[in-house]
Amino acid sequence: MSLTASQEIYVSRLGRGTLGFAALVVAVLAGICIGETPIPVSIVLQTLANRIFGSAYVLDPIDMGVIWNYRLPRAIIAACCGSGLAISGMVLQSLLRNALADPYLLGISAGASTGAVAVTVAGMGAGAISMSLGAFVGAVVAFALVAIMARAAGGGVTLHGTGQIVLAGIAGSQLFNALTSFIITKSANAEQARGIMFWLLGNLSGARWPDVWLAVPIALVGLAACIWYARALDAFAFGAESASSLGIPVRRVQVVLIGFTALVTAVMVSIVGSIGFVGLVIPHAARFLVGVRHGRLGPATALIGAVFLITADVLSRTIIPGQVLPIGVITALVGAPAFAVILIRGRRAP
Amino acid sequence: MTVSSLALAAASFAFLTAVAAAEPTKYPLTLENCGETLTFQKAPASTVTVGQAATEVLYSLGLGDKVTGTSVWFKEVLPEFREVNDQVERLADNDPSFESVVAKRPELVTVQFIWHVGPDGIVATRTQFHDVDIPTYVLPADCVAKDNTVGVDGTRSELFSTTTIHQGIRELAQIFDIQGKGAELVASLAERENAAVERAKALDLKGVSAVFWFSSAEMDIDPYVAGRKGAPAYMMDKLGIKNIIESDEEWPVVGWETIAKANPKLIVIAKMDRRRFPADDYERKLEFLKSDPVASQMDAVKNDRIVVMDAHAMDATIRTIAGIEVLSKSLKDFGLAQ
Amino acid sequence: MILEAHGLGWSVRGKPIVTGVDLVVNEGETLGLVGPNGSGKSTMMKLLAGIRQPTSGDVRVKGEALRAMPRRAVAQLIAFLEQQAETTEAITVKDAVDLGRTPWLTPLQPWSPKDDLIVAQALADTDMEGFERRSWATLSGGERQRVHLARALAQQPQILLLDEPTNHLDVQHQLSILDLVAKLPVTSVVALHDLNQAVSCDRVGVLSGGRLVALGPPHEVLTVERIGAVFGVRASILTDPADGTHMFRFHPAS
């Protein structure tokens, strides 16, 4: 019995989906097996068996705790942040029709950092609002400011305005990073600059189960929104007016999707600090692999982002023995050259 | 000869050397200080301090009346100096501006941390002060065998020792021509230290390990802990405790996974007035240790062997000696004797 | 009376671009819009498509106010071919034409084989069969224009709004596309540059300085006097010996 064309497509999609999911599982396993200290794989597996299947292997409680309470949530958070930031980057790139759009580059991450620091360090809101909410407000304010700046500079969402929004984003990032430093410096006693770098470079070491219960739903909501709006995002290929003539309520879609982007970015930043280049590079890698249709691109971007950030986290813990590099350093080391490639390719494009 | 009589002998030797050195300073006085050569024609009539440790050393030497301005405060002044300190203007809680220091027309600026006045000094560089004929003296504890260009808080090439604190006291005493007072202070600090060390030695400790937790940028995040060359490392070394951290940085960031797996016998947590991070509060540190699913499994937490120590004692200051005393007493209280 | 405009106006920063246009488009007709550069043709088309909101007056489709309709409902009725719609995305011809089905799909009503047939027909109608897998970046200007038209056709609209659809096209494709539009059982409004192409429309509207200065059958509207007044050229009318239709030849006014 031969398969019809659409069945073949279905099978190949199923195959690719399975492959992608397997890659994610392997990455998570690597994240649990590789850490600061060596723990034999057999103990890792026994711990998982104890916790998931209720087995009763006798294990050192510290080993078990490290695997179940540190490494596993850390890997899951890395996956959520990777996919959340990558999805955010993809949505911004499509909506703004700008290959360089990314929550980090457009100042959203910097704004989220400022918001989070304003709540935790400067005590704004007097404990009534959470750090995530502060980060969200910061993210939205930063993006609004960058959008206004870009618009005033004649940019906006046209093909010709690509430069302006990136420049405005850089200016916005600088402003909000300066504000973050200002808040920290102002409210601190005389003490060295320990810890400021956390917000600027990202750090996954604080990942625990309660964060997982926040990160997983947010990452899934981000992915769901982007799948739900996949056709709308496709319709932006020829610009906002073209999308409008294809029946897309442009303003509403922009507001909703940018809102989701700000939410996802803000929550991720409030958990791990701001991690650059994931949102910029991963969507391009995904486009290269599965094409530009958002129905496929969204899940692929999320998956690659998740695997990428888990891998980057494992590298950050192992590349220099006995020392943990900030994860932002790893993503930048991969991302900056990729950024250059995108710029050069963009120049060559007709 | 018993151990305690040995300590007594050491202390009296220190006292004897102190008395021997107690003669008036000959001016012009020239001395090397953290890479700069300083020359004094006479004892400075006034000084401004940058750094609480510098302030407290001068107060300990009875030079409170010479101090015309203070800055960079980490916590309340030691209670015995409260009265003296009330008479002195506080230029800034944090970093003072160059002009506010110069405006006091001090004949000396006494500095705790090199990063306030080093090549990238946030107050000013030493050259800037020297250009307006104000000498700067940096406490040797922050520059002897220490590279301040490596790591966030600098990196020591040799284990810190209280001898650099003694050196700072002696040199300041020399500059201000009160060498007798300086020798006395050094002798009493050395005596306290030796006594604390002897008490610990009497416990005949075996296999005791520890970690010093200063703070963390976020409650659950990798904490700042004491490296193996700073003041806490010196305390542990002197008292026969193994430091589980193997970094040369002053306050490296080390993961809880590494700490938990090393499973130290005791944990020393810093108590400070600073509230930049939630973990600055020692109560929050205790709470974390008891509630974190992994940290709570460590022997030190299970057996409640947690020492709360003045954070300023963990920096290279005269309070370091009090830190040694606290740690030595805790070893006994925890019943770690063999 | 499928599409009508009443007192339609649009201005930017106080400068009027389109002013007081009253226009009724009849079902099934092909209406040509002509006018010199800057006369407001493109703005007029965007207002009729509803992707720009008028600053005065309104547009009605089948009696219903355009601004009150959901974009999706509008897109099921009206397809709009923009001038110079470009992309830097690495999309294929098929991807671009598939977009035309957007107003008919929802997440719960996904792509079906029927949509494949409609897209294939649109590609055939625009002579773009066999180009499906070609990437956008490799297409010529004329091919891109035909893909855009195919996308508009895939929308299966009742009204086609085409802003200078013959731009970039070679002579053969200019003719075949105009012929196709004329034969389609839809109402179309076509902004045109070439007055000779406007002659074959059912009716012609002339825009000048943002106002509709004439509207009617081509031979009534496109007179030598009006062409002189609106376009600033001297026109002479020739008769094609092949089929007896009139055509214009232009000379500098002096």
Automatic annotation (TrEMBL), chain A:
One of its GO terms (cellular component) is plasma membrane. InterPro entries: ABC_BtuC-like (IPR037294), ABC_transptr_permease_BtuC (IPR000522). It is a multi-pass membrane protein. The keyword Oxidoreductase does not apply. Keywords: Cell membrane, Membrane, Transmembrane, Transmembrane helix, Transport. One of its GO terms (molecular function) is transmembrane transporter activity. One of its GO terms (biological process) is siderophore-iron import into cell. The keyword Transport applies. The chain crosses the membrane at residues 20-45, 72-92, 104-126, 133-153, 165-184, 212-230, 255-282, 294-312, 324-344. It comes from the Bacteria. Pfam families: FecCD (PF01032). PANTHER family: ABC TRANSPORTER PERMEASE PROTEIN MJ0876-RELATED, FERRIC ENTEROBACTIN TRANSPORT SYSTEM PERMEASE PROTEIN. It is found in: Cell membrane. This is Iron complex transport system permease protein. Belongs to the binding-protein-dependent transport system permease family. FecCD subfamily.
TrEMBL record, chain B:
Residues 1-20 form the signal peptide. The keyword Signal applies. Residues 46-338 form the Fe/B12 periplasmic-binding domain. This is Iron complex transport system substrate-binding protein. InterPro entries: ABC_Transporter_SBP (IPR050902), ABC_transptr_periplasmic_BD (IPR002491). The keyword Signal applies. PANTHER family: IRON(III) DICITRATE-BINDING PROTEIN, VITAMIN B12-BINDING PROTEIN.
Automatic annotation (TrEMBL), chain C:
GO terms for molecular function: ATP binding; ATP hydrolysis activity. The keyword Transport applies. Transmembrane segments: none annotated. Keywords: ATP-binding, Nucleotide-binding, Transport. Gene3D superfamilies: P-loop containing nucleotide triphosphate hydrolases. It holds the Pfam family ABC_tran. Residues 3-234 form the ABC transporter domain. The keyword Disulfide bond does not apply. SUPFAM superfamilies: P-loop containing nucleoside triphosphate hydrolases. Belongs to the ABC transporter superfamily. This is Iron complex transport system ATP-binding protein. It comes from Mesorhizobium tianshanense.
